[in-house]
Design a protein that fits this description.
There is one protein chain. Helix content is 43%, strand content 19%. It has a 3-stranded parallel β-sheet with strand order 2-1-3, with helices on both faces. The radius of gyration is 12 Å and the shape is flat. Helix 2 packs parallel to helix 3. Helix 1 links the parallel strand 1 and strand 2. The chain has 3 helices and 3 strands. By secondary structure, the protein is of the alpha/beta class.
């Protein structure tokens, strides 16, 4: 089963992604902001990470930069 982490500050987008991917048998996890998304990614070690670009605390580009510095995500 593919583990997917979706990071976005818009709850409606969480529902859209859930509706689209859950029928495919994906294991979905969600984070509301970049900071919690990074922490969750390090805990869950997802196969795929999808992130919004514009978020209030850390934008999606910075989330990606921080995770790429981590050897387990490089």
């Amino acid at each position: 089963m593919t583990r997917i982490l979706y990071i976005d500050d818009e709850p409606m987008n969480h529902q859209l992604v859930k509706h689209a991917l859950q029928p495919l048998g994906c294991e979905l996890s969600f984070a509301q902001d970049g900071t919690s998304g990074i922490a969750l990614a390090r805990t869950l070690k997802p196969d795929i990470l999808i992130t919004d670009v514009l978020m209030p605390d850390i934008n999606g580009y910075e989330v990606t930069r921080q995770l790429r510095r981590d050897p387990q995500f490089a």
